[in-house]
What does this fold into?
Amino acid sequence: MKIDSIQNGIVIDHIPAGKAMQVYQYLKLDEAEGSVALLQNVPSRKHGKKDIIKLDGVTELDWNILAFLAPDCTVNVIADGNTVEKKHLKLPETLTDVIVCKNPRCITTVEPGLHHIFKLANRETGVYRCVYCESAHN
Ligand SMILES: [Zn+2]
It folds into this structure.
């Protein structure tokens, strides 16, 4: 795969440097149908360094997970070799089974069948709270 010549896919730009691997793992990109290229520590005029992920043959991602991990990233949707859409993501209101509550007395720790649900408590700081015990996750 030539990483500069994606025909149909997604380019995730402006990922904070060092975070691309985490994005890769949370989005389960090892199971992606198409080709995946991870570029790390790319010089960026705006932020010093950044990571970029290029996906060829992939058109859908879990945008909530991506927004949670890299809220300031830019998503370019590529069709027939051209950028047809630029998405700016927003922190999702709710995260279900993305992060795990670390409070040992939380009901999710005691009852393994429960979903781990977090609600956005503060959009400015990106703090999420467990819906069961209110524990914060930053
Ligand atoms: Zn909890």
Q: What stands out?
A: The chain has two domains: 9-88, 94-137.
